[in-house]
Amino acid sequence: MLKVLGHPIRLKIVAGLCAQECNVKHIWECLALPQATVSQHLALLKNKGIIEGTRDGVEVHYAVVSPFVRRLIEILHAEP
Predict the structure, then answer these.
(1) Mind telling me which CDD domains this protein's record contains (predicted)?
(2) What is the tens place of the pLDDT at every residue in 33-75?
(3) Predicted TM-score of the model (pTM)
């Protein structure tokens, strides 16, 4: 999991999804990246069991489901 989270884009995606679940369009707009790039990163995170997508009509909302990753992001955001 740490290797997957070692990529700065994936780390940003996961940190954002820990704060709020969102759809792929919202993610790529926030990161100012092409939709295809974000989708590739989401697919890798999903395959590693870090996030899950829930279908709502035509949209898929992503959220972090790994307790380990949630705790890791919490620690990274903690003040010393």
Answers:
(1) HTH_ARSR
(2) 999 999 999 999 999 999 999 998 999 999 999 999 999 999 9
(3) 0.91
DSSP string, 13-32: HHHHHHH--EEHHHHHHHHT
Tens of pLDDT, residue by residue over 20-37, are 999 999 999 999 999 999
pLDDT value at residue 1: 87
Residue 30's domain spans which residues? 1-77
| Spatial separation of the C-alpha atoms in residues 78 and 62, rounded to whole Å | 24
Listing from the earlier edge strand, what are the strands of the sheet with 51-56?
22-23, 59-64, 51-56
Looking at the 3D structure of the chain, how many domains does it have?
Answer: 1
Contact 50, 66 (CB under 8 A): yes
Domain of 17: which CATH number? 1.10.10.10
